[in-house]
Amino acid sequence: MPAIALVPRRLAITEIKLYLREPLAAFFAVVLPLALLLILGAAIPAFREPAADMGGARPVDTHLPGMMILLSILTVAFSTMPSALVIYRERGVLRRMSTTPVRPISVLTVQLVINAVVSILATALMLIFGHLILEIPYPSMFLAFAGVFVLGSVTLFGIGLALAAVAPNSRVVQSVGAGIMFPLLFLGGMWLPRPLMPEWLRVVSDYSPTGAFGQALTDVLGNHAPSPLHLGVMACWAAVGIVAATRWFRWE
């Protein structure tokens, strides 16, 4: 059956429909982080008390939403997006599209846009419901927050694209993505807040993409300027991921 050439708008609509047919993707990227934020913030009184090791800030205002935003973006970048791209390559979708007016790069672009929108939506919902239910203040340093969010997202998405570039099949990309994601969440401070880490582990965290991103998010949510070190680390990881993905990505 001849391939049907799709204009970009139709391609975008098709990709959105395919994304919505996988409710687990939206659940882990949007619903789960939001639910964890609201449940943990409401159920653990210590999260609503000023913490000395966090400069007197309430963890529910800074650390907890920062970690949930990190979890959402990391899930999209290391699971949802790479799996979709590798499955398309595995099934020959990208190769067949190369014979139509719509090039394979269009699929990559649409996938990036859709997953970026999902990350923005998840973050917006966490900020809105966190404010309404837990009285978490909105970021007063909004431009700094937006800048950190964009840089951190580009960093994790770049690494995720590099993962999709080298993974031979969907089983490998799913298992490797999960295997990398959980150590990165740990280094980001998900289970052990960075102020409680031993000095050597905090240094390792500083130079990891999630440690730098998580701390920068926590800083701007607490009305502090992000560290130049963490911004530089994210920029370096973003460059490495994008260069690796560009060099090694295979369409078939």
From TrEMBL:
ABC transmembrane type-2 domain boundaries: 24-252
Gene Ontology biological process: response to antibiotic
Name of the protein in its database record: Transport permease protein
Keyword annotations: Antibiotic resistance, Cell membrane, Membrane, Transmembrane, Transmembrane helix, Transport
Compartments in which it is found: Cell membrane; Membrane
Membrane-crossing segments per the record: 24-47, 67-88, 108-134, 140-165, 172-192, 229-249
Membrane topology reported for the UniProt record: Multi-pass membrane protein
Principal subcellular localization: membrane
Record InterPro entries: ABC-2_transporter (IPR052902), ABC2_TM (IPR013525), ABC2_TM_bact-type (IPR047817), ABC_2_transport (IPR000412)
A single GO cellular-component term on record: ATP-binding cassette (ABC) transporter complex
Domain of life: Bacteria
Keyword Cell division applies: no
Keyword Amino-acid biosynthesis: no
